[in-house]
Amino acid sequence: MPVPGDPPYFRRVAVIGIGLIGASFALAAKRAGRVGYVVGVARREETRRAARAIGAADETTPDPVPAVRGAELVYLATPVGALPGLLRTIAAALAPGCLVTDAGSVKAPVCQAAEALPASVRFVGGHPLAGSERSGPQAARADLFQKHVYFLVPTPRGGDEAAQQMARLVEALGARPVTISALEHDRLLAATSHLPHAVAVALMLAISQLVPDARQRAEFSATGLRDTTRIAASSPEVWRDIFLANARPLREACQLTIRLLQELVEAAEAGDGQRLKELLAQSQQVRQALETSPAARG
Amino acid sequence: MPVPGDPPYFRRVAVIGIGLIGASFALAAKRAGRVGYVVGVARREETRRAARAIGAADETTPDPVPAVRGAELVYLATPVGALPGLLRTIAAALAPGCLVTDAGSVKAPVCQAAEALPASVRFVGGHPLAGSERSGPQAARADLFQKHVYFLVPTPRGGDEAAQQMARLVEALGARPVTISALEHDRLLAATSHLPHAVAVALMLAISQLVPDARQRAEFSATGLRDTTRIAASSPEVWRDIFLANARPLREACQLTIRLLQELVEAAEAGDGQRLKELLAQSQQVRQALETSPAARG
C-alpha cells in the first residue's frame, strides 16, 4: 500500500540503542536522504565507535538526554524491557513537535508508556519485521528493511497524522508499512514469532536433558533438529524482555500448542493412525502454503 | 571406528521399497563394487521405471516374494509400518544364509518381528541418518550416506557376526557405522528426531489456528517461524508410521518438552526475568555447542 505524500525529512535525529536495528535504520535513512545529522546513543564504547566507523552516527554519546535535545526524530532501538523507562528519562528533554518511535517486538507496553509523554510530543509505535542472527552496528545494513513488513501503531500522541508520516518514512527506506493496533500486533507476533521462539527453547532444553552427552547430541542430530532449534541460540536478554512484555498472549499460544502436541502423542499411543495422518497432512498443507504464498517472497 | 576385514560382496540383492533411501543404497553399493545384480521392488510403476532409469535396479517387480528368491542380501526400505508384515510375507522365500536388513527410523518393532524369521536367515536392523526433503528414486544419490551416521542393531538372527558384516558394507559406502541396541536407538531418536518433528507439527497447527488467514501467516512470518516449522511439511505417511512405532518414548520426550514450555511461560507471567534469562542462556549455550562440535561436521 503506497502511502501518498512526500517522505518527511528530519534535520537532527537521535538513535538510542544504535545496534543492528538502530544503525541499519540510520544507514537506510541517510541513504534515502531523509535525515541530516544523527546522534547515536549506546552504553558500550565499542558500540559507539563501531556506529561512527560505519557512518551510521555523526556523533555518539552514552547519555540519551543530551542526545534527544533538539532532535526532530527520536528512534528507540533498545531491548523491549528498557523502552518504558527510557521514555520517562527523555520525556522532559524532547523538543515540542518531536516525533518519537521505537523498534520493539512488543507494542502494548511502550505505547502505553508513551501516553505519559508531554502533549507536544508525537509517538508512533514501530516494529520492523527484519533482523539477523548477528547483532551490533557491525552487522548493520542500509537494506536491512528492504521489502520487509514494518508495523506501525498510531497512538493518542500524534494519531493517524504522525503514523502517516512514519509510513512515508519507512516506505522511503524500502519497507512495507502495515498499520495495526498494539493489541492486534502483540497477539499476531505471539503466534508468528514469540511462540516459535519459546517452543524452540523448550525443545532444545528437553533434548539436552534427554541426551545429556553434548557429543552425542551433535553426532546424532539431523537437519530437522538443527532447523527447529536454530533460534534457540538467540540473545537471552532480548528474548527475556519480549517474553516478559508479551506474557499473556504467549501463554495462550503455548497452551494451544501443548494441547495439539498432546493430541498427537495420544493418537500415537492409541494407535490411531487415521487421526495422526489427518493432523500430519494438515500441518503439511499449512506449511507448504507458507512457502508458496506470493506474499512470502515480498 | 574403522571396521576390520574386507567389505562383503553380494551377487544378488533385493531392494524392497526402492525410493530415495533404497535407490541411494543400491547406487552407492554398486559404485563401491559391493553388489552384483539388483532387483528393485516398488508398488508404483513410475517408481520402478525411475529406479531402472537411474541404474539403481537391473530389474524391477511389484512383488517382493520372487524378488528375494536367491538374494544374498535383502534391503528393506519401505515406511516403518510396513516392515513387520513384509518380513512375514518374504520369510518363506528367503534363501538360507541370506542377510536381511532394513532402513527404518524405529528399530524395536522390526527387530522384534525379525525374531520370527527362519533360523537360517540373518537379520541386522539398520538406520542411515541421512535423507532429503525430496523423495523417490529420482532424488537418489550414490553419496547420500557419505560421512553420515549409520545405526546398526545386532539381533539373535546372526548376532554380532552379521552386524560386523553390515558395518563393513556401510563403511564401504562411506557411512559411519554405529552399533546400538534397538531400545537405545529408539529412545535416542525419539529425542533427536521424532520429538522435533512432533513439536514442529504441533507448532504449525497452532499457528494456523491462531492466525487463520494463510496470507497473513505468510506475510507476517519471519525466518524463525520458517526454520522451526520446515519439517512439518514432510510426508504424513512416513511420520504417522514413525510416531505409531515409537509412541512411548515420543510421549515421554513430549511431556518433558511440555513441562519446560510451561516453566518458560510461567516465569514470563510471574515476571521472573532472572529465571527466564537462565533458561534462555542455557538453551543458547546448548544450541551453540551443537553447531561448534567437531562431530557435527562429520
What descriptors fit this protein?
homodimer, 298 residues, alpha/beta, eight-stranded mixed β-sheet, 12 helices, 8 strands, 50% helix, 14% strand, elongated
Strand order of the largest sheet of chain A: 3-2-1-4-5-6-7-8
With helices defined by DSSP (H or I, 4 residues minimum), what is the helix count of chain A? 12
State the separation between the terminal residues of chain A, measured CA to CA: 13 Å
Beta-strand percentage of chain A?
Answer: 5-15%
What's the overall geometry of chain A? Answer: elongated
Describe this structure in words.
The structure is a homodimer. With about 300 residues, chain A is α/β, with parallel strands linked by helices. Helix content of chain A is about 50%, strand content about 15%. In chain A, strands 3-2-1-4-5-6-7-8 form an eight-stranded mixed beta sheet, with helices on both faces.
